[in-house]
Amino acid sequence: MIRYFTAGESHGPALSAIVEGLPAGMPLSPEDIDNELARRQQGYGRGGRMKIETDRAQVLSGVRFGSTIGSPVTLQISNRDWQNWTTRMAQFDKPQEEIPAISIPRPGHADLTGMIKYGFNDIRPVIERASARETAARVAACSLAKTFLRHAGIQIGSYVSAIGPADGTADPALLDNLLAHGAADLSREADTSCVRMLTKTDEKKAVAAIDKAKEDGDTLGGIIELFITGVPMGLGTYVQHDRRLDAALAAALISIQAVKGVEIGTAFDNARKPGSQVHDEMFIAGSGSPARNTNRAGGLEGSMSNGEVIHLRAAMKPIATLMSPLHSFDVTSMEAHLSHIERSDTCAVPACSVIAEAVVAPVLANALLEKTGGDHFEEVLDRLDAYRKEIDAKFRN
């Protein structure tokens, strides 16, 4: 099964990742990784760091002649900003000059709790690893699983449906049209917008909200809509809690820095309605296969994929660093103080939507591998094709 680990600090020399469990023989190109990294760096409201970095991944192991070889894939992304932090983030020799400790935590960040938990007298080590800069390594690592799924006919796409007060919820007909040939079309359309919304009217509202927040020294969060197409019926299981596909997808999304809520389908709206207005009725289509007119369950029933489009929603809170800081205190003097200011974004919701696409990919890939098995990529594809035909045959009979 696929698993990955990341390492590195926000202002250290590099970020790195190790990805284990990919079957041998999967085609892979540098663009499969670097295009996802470039998408993560885009978006209106990003801060100065994105003007410094141009993320590219160096593959150090696990690939030969453009294909995976079954061994762990090692990736490294250099931090160009490291040259400005070699003294403050020195790894061994402590600088002779004094490096001021950060002792004022930011409300909404890992600062205070991380400092207490790990016994630091300086918040800097917490800032470095808790930073969303780590997601560059995650996007690189997860792009391999996303490539795996794409070759298997499974596509992941997203758009932003809200930034702060600006609502950009897409018209259902527009969404259906974009998803008709796969979720990648949805992402390509969203990528043409600086806020990843689907209409120019919604984009203008979001840009205006971001500008206002920046002027006020404030930050904005938002809502991400995620869609996965081409998923066959029967991935995941109801048998054990730790193998439930819905739980794994939700966990992957909530693991993203600043994401505080996850919804499957129209879950919260469903909770206010009777079952007769919630559950997706089943019909027999002209082809003889099951069909549904609605997808309120978000493509997941009984913790398994039901053959419909998987629809997930993630809520990202506003970034914790405000240029007009909130009230805090100095942990050294225990006196009231305005919170620490660290270089940051005004809004990173568009970037977060790309990260969301990435982190669900290994979850789906593992659910697929659990169903098909296989050590070589062609073996996996053959077994998936046989499974799809088996499903079709059941309903034709």
Task: Give the secondary structure arrangement, pairings included.
Blueprint: E1 3-7, E2 14-20, H1 30-40, H2 49-52, E3 57-61, E4 63-64, E5 67-68, E6 73-78, H3 111-118, H4 124-130, H5 135-151, E7 155-163, E8 166-167, H6 172-179, H7 183-191, H8 200-215, E9 222-229, H9 245-254, E10 259-264, H10 267-270, E11 282-284, E12 290-292, E13 300-301, E14 304-305, E15 310-316, E16 327-329, E17 336-338, H11 349-372, H12 377-396
Antiparallel strand pairs: 1-2, 2-6, 3-6, 4-5, 7-8, 7-9, 9-15, 10-15, 11-12, 13-14, 16-17
Helix pairs in contact: 1-5, 5-11, 9-11, 11-12
* CATH fold naming: Chorismate synthase, AroC fold
Gross CATH architecture: 4-Layer Sandwich
Element order: H for helix, E for strand: EEHHEEEEHHHEEHHHEHEHEEEEEEEHH
Helical content (DSSP H or I, runs of 4+):
25-40%
- Sheet with most strands: strand arrangement: 8-7-9-15-10
In total, the number of strands is 17
What percentage of amino acids are in beta strands?
15-25%
Please report the distance between the alpha carbons of the first and last residues. Answer: 34 Å
How would you characterize the largest beta sheet?
5 strands, antiparallel
